[in-house]
Each structure stands twice: as structure tokens, then as C-alpha cells.
Amino acid sequence: MAARRLARQLCAGAGHAVDPKKKASVVTSDSSEPSLAALAAWLDAEFGQHAVAIAWVNQQQVQYLLHGKADLANQLPLTAQTLFEIGSISKPLTALAALKQVQAGHWQLDRPLSAQFGLQQLAKHHYSLAQLITHQSGLPRLPANMPLDDLTNPYAGYSKEDLLAALASTDFEQQVFSYSNYGYGLLGFLLEQTQQQPFATIMQQQVFTPMGMKSAAVQTPGGRFKPLATGHAISQQVVSHWQFDSLAGAGAVLASIEDMAQLLRQLFASADSDPVLQQWLTVISSSGQPQMTPGWMQHNDWLWHNGQTAGFSSMLVFDPWQKQGLVLLSNLAMPMTEQSFSLFAQLLAQPPGYKLGTPLVDDNKKSETE
Fold first, then answer.
1. Which of 107, 133, 110, 109 is nearest to 118 (CA)?
2. Domain total in the chain
3. Bridge partners of residue 69, in order along the sequence
4. How far apart are CA 370 and CA 368, in angstroms?
5. Which residues contact 309 (CB under 8 A, 6 or more apart)?
6. 84 contact partners, CB below 8 Å, separation of at least 6
7. Helix intervals (H) in the chain
8. More confident residue, 149 or 129
9. N or C: where does the chain have the smaller number of CB atoms within 10 Å of the terminal CB?
């Protein structure tokens, strides 16, 4: 019963605003705030031999720290190419694909969906694209017709026909910030409808390849993805991977720590000259809280998003002005948002040349030749 409650909570969506300047709170009965001085000890205490992949990106320099096993039962090693479910960090990536439609003049951020998409099911959807991207559309967390009787892989069987039926009969909530997997699932669906291509193809062509994410993929039903880590619930029980159909825009991306580091490197290298990336990092004017850019939460100069599925947790936080960022991916579904904020603040305070453990891949030399 406890596992079902956890899965139901996760199904409703991970990823919400917290204050990164607030002292990290306890997230499990034995969790503690990490320190750089005792990082290895913290990883051992919190995660045991479950996998944790860390990337510290400073301008174009990358350091990786890998802990634990990708598959405990078979003692498979964790590498920088091991794939993780990144959960709701998929949302900023979906938003990036949407911004390319905006920059091309096909979509408008301030125009109601009912006026710019030719779907009769959207006739009562009078919120704007900007409100959809910033979780202020009034859509609930999940569609009302999404079945929750089998929570081992809850999104796999929710079809496009199901989504269209939900859109035609949605009861809207107040248009204030309310985190919505439904909303980002709809955003991915609209990308498919506009371009007449599968969401996985759109993401590959418009996000993964341009951002240097060579092994990233969209986890759809029936797909086989290697090397994909084995996921574990917070109870440490092995759980099924989550696959997505019509709501893929909300959380279907698989990525390695190397993919995520390359995402940040490409962002830091190109944002000053790329109008799409500039818009991705620009707060959308809104009276709502928290402040958001398209897909990213904001606190002061930091942008961030977290993610969680039944067997994985993830966190990405970066400072676009200093061009520094931190990524943590794990195959244990233990929330680590505030711990990641604490580590990031400590890293920003370090002098030049600080080493996060031992770099496992020397991307510093690679960046000099690119």
C-alpha cells in the first residue's frame, strides 16, 4: 500500500518550487546535508551502492564523479554513458522544442491555445502558450481520465485518444501556478500535431542533436534503450521503467550524465548568440510565483529543474551568468533537490582550479579543440 501511495504521488508529477537559499531540509529519516569535504561519505551513507552520477560544469570544463552501480543485482558498473530516467527535467527540453516553433513564427506565446491550434477539443482552452509553459494554464496535474489502477508504468497506456477526450472535458482550476504533467504532456502532443512527426523524432532533431546529447532518447512503449540503469524505489525495491505515449512531453527523456553535461556546455557556449536559447533563459513576465523562464524554475540568478520517476531522481541547477552548473542523476528515487542546491552553492564558492573528486573524462582538453 505504501508503494502504491508513493507511485501515485510520483505519477502526479515531481518538480516544484523550493527556496534554494533555505537550509536543506531532511528528506528521509537518515538523510543529511552534503558537504564537498565529505562528499564520498555522504554518497555512501545516502545511496549505498545505488548509482549517482554527478557533473560539475564550469564554463566549458567538466568534471564527473560516479558512485555506485548501474545494476546492483548484476554488478554492472556505472559509466558516464549510463542512461537514467530524468523525469521532469524533460519539461525544459520540451519547452525548448516549443520555443523553436515560436521563433519560426508558427506559434505565439501570448495567444490563447483555442485561437492558434485547429483542434476542436481546445475550444475552451483560453489560456496562452506562455501560461501553459509556466504551469499557469489552470490544467490539473493529471487528466481526469488517466487510469491509476496500475501504477507500475502509469503513462505507457495513456493514448492520444485518451488525451483528446480529456481536453474536450477538462474542468479548469484557477490560473495560478499549479504544477501540471498534463500541461507539458499537451505541449509535447501539440508539437507532434503541428509538425506531423513523432515526439521522439522532434526531440532528436531539434533538441538532443543540436545540444550535443548523443545518447539521449524518448522512452516510448516497446522501445529498448541501452545502457539503461535499473531503477529502485526509495524502499530500494527494483521497479519498472516508465514509458510514455501521449504525455511524453512531461517526463519521457532518458539521458546520461555526459548528455546532461554537454547540454550545459552547449548552452553556455551559444546562449549569447542564439535567440532561441536566450528566450529559454528569459523569465516570462508574470505576476505568478515562482518566476519561470520557458521550462526552468528561477531563484535569483539560478535556473533549475528536478525530476523523479518510480525508480530514478534527478536535479539540474545552473547559473547562466557565471556559466556554471551542477547535475545529479540517480537510480534511487530519493528526492535530492535541496541537497543539490547546497552542493551547488558550495561549488560556486570554490577557488579556480577546484577538483570535484577525480575527473573521469577529461573534457577540458576536448573543449580546447572544439
1. 107
2. 1
3. 50, 77
4. 6
5. 10, 14, 85, 87, 231, 241, 242, 251, 333
6. 51, 53, 228, 229, 254, 255, 256, 257, 312, 314, 329, 330, 331
7. 2-11, 39-47, 90-103, 113-116, 129-133, 160-169, 181-195, 199-203, 257-270, 275-280, 337-348, 363-369
8. 129
9. N
pTM for this entry? 0.91
Q: How far is CA 200 from the centre of its chain?
A: 15
Size of the chain in residues:
370
232 and 223 in contact (C-beta within 8 Å)? no
Mean pLDDT of 350-354: 86
Average the pLDDT over 307-336 and give the result.
97
CATH number of the domain to which 224 belongs:
3.40.710.10
Query: Within 10 A of 118 (CB to CB), how many other CB atoms are there?
Result: 7
At residue 32, the pLDDT reads 76
SS3 20: coil
Cβ partners under 8 Å of residue 153, min gap 6: 240, 241, 242, 243
- How far, in Å, CA of 37 to CA of 343, rounded? 11
Residue 215 has pLDDT above 90, yes or no: yes
The strands making up 302-308's β-sheet, listed across from edge to edge, are: 61-67, 52-58, 324-330, 313-319, 302-308, 297-299
Sorting pLDDT into bands at 50, 70 and 90, what band is 87?
very high
Query: Predicted confidence band at 283 (pLDDT cuts at 50, 70, 90)?
Result: very high
- Asked if residues 1 and 141 have their Cβ atoms less than 8 Å apart, the reply is no
> Domain range spanning residue 37?
2-369
